[in-house]
TrEMBL record:
One Pfam family, short name: 2OG-FeII_Oxy_3
Cell cycle keyword on record: no
Sequence ranges assigned to domain Fe2OG dioxygenase in this UniProt record: 97-191
Entry protein name: Fe2OG dioxygenase domain-containing protein
Keyword rRNA processing: no
Cofactor names: L-ascorbate
Coiled coil, from the record: none
Alphabetically ordered keywords of this record: Dioxygenase, Iron, Metal-binding, Oxidoreductase, Vitamin C
Amino acid sequence: MSGFDNVADRLADSGWALWPGFLDASETEALIALSHGRREAFQHAAIGRAGGRARNEAIRGDDVLWLDSDDPDVQTLLDRLGDLQATLNRGLYLGLATLECHFAVYPAGAFYKRHLDQHRGQDTRAVTVVIYLNHDWLPEQGGQLRLYTEAGPVDVQPQGGTLVAFLSDRFEHEVMPATRERLSVSGWFRRREAAVL
Ligand SMILES: O=C(O)CCC(=O)C(=O)O
Ligand SMILES: [Fe+2]
């Protein structure tokens, strides 16, 4: 079974999935180098939706850089995520229509408090994906993604090349503070807006 099919199966069974070798070492390295080259363009992450957006370091302390779907430097990643989208639509009938994603850097000590990715009531975010870009992550360095599943909390190590995917409206989660910088790409597959009748 392919990695894509495996993610689809795990999402269908338990609502979340892990793929440790989603990116190989050279793909991971290329994205690390790209993010370093663009570090000046990152901006402090904001919380809330348009209108009520504000920076609040007591909730989240990462810096982000949104990716442009036309950017040739991220086509390998976006194509791979497009394959995942197609597999999920085929196997789970999720109707995923678009993908938005950003790099995120958490400086040492930064965190993102427990939250849900789907903004209540309004949002079409259906599946969250996070791809980690950190060499040789050690558990004692912290920085885990803690997913609050029905079976209890699950900690995901932010090891380079690993992809985690979960249903955006189902699991609260948080990013634990780390003793070193933590780099990732976060993405959200959206359904089409519901038709207004
Ligand atoms: O980086 C992670 O592990 C999760 C990030 C997150 O929860 C978010 O950006 O909404
Ligand atoms: Fe999140």
